[in-house]
Amino acid sequence: MKKVFLIILITFFITAQSQIKKHKFNLGVRAGLNYSNISGLNSHYKTAYYAGIYGHMAFTEHYALQPELTISQQGTENATYTDTGSPPVTYTHKFNLNYTTFSIINKFTFADKFNLIVGPSVDFATGDKTHLNSEIDVAISVGFGVKATKNLGIEARFKKGLFDITDYGNNNDLSLANYQYNTNMLFQLGATYTFDLN
Question: In 27-44, which positions are buried (b, 16+ CB within 10 angstroms) versus exposed (e)?
Fold first, then answer.
């Protein structure tokens, strides 16, 4: 897994260097809050953090491609299941999931300072992998942002995983009745800072 992360990081910087001469290119950092859950579980949203770096390649005045490398804390709070035996017993499980995420974000700018965000990502689980069905997730992010200053921005995103990530899948565990597919979903709210390299 470490080799995969290294290859992604090297590819990211090689691509960035090759594009500097062709297009307006800048590096940036992003960080903020995650509000995450896992679909199909009887659970509560978890508040955590994300932080990462990105390369911003402006192809036109209104369109930019933004590769991102992000560390993201996700999961749920208090996923519960009640065994209806005699006496009934309630079980709880807390998902503390950490992901290293590589994303390709398409950014569309309008009215000079507003932008729409959409793009795919590949997420690699790190840390606690208890009850994970898959250590790799593929997700789609959509969102919007606004430039507060030339370099500082504020953005909000919704990210939805596509893979069944837990090993829960029937009515005798933490899954909701008749639901056998558990996917990551999270809201992100944070800030970006773009360094002007040109």
Answer: ebebebebebbbbbbbbe
Number of separate domains in the chain: 1
Give the model confidence (pLDDT) of 139-170 as tens digits: 999 999 999 998 999 999 999 999 998 876 55
Handedness of CA 113, 119, 122, 127 (dihedral sign): positive
CA distances from 64 to 67, 108, 153 (A): 10, 7, 15
CB 166 within 8 A of CB 182: yes
To which residue do tokens 């509000």 refer?
A: 35
Q: What count of residues does the chain have? A: 198
127 torsion bin: left (phi>0), alpha (psi -120 to 50), beta (else): left
Q: Which CATH number do you get for residue 90?
A: 2.40.160.20
**pTM (2 decimals)?**
0.80
Task: Show the domain range for 13.
Answer: 2-195
**Largest Cα–Cα distance in the chain?**
71
Contact 55, 27 (CB under 8 A): yes
Place of tokens 């996923």: 79
User: In whole angstroms, what is the distance from residue 31 CA to residue 10 CA?
Assistant: 22
Q: How far apart are CA 140 and CA 5, in angstroms?
A: 20
CA distance 59 to 50: 27
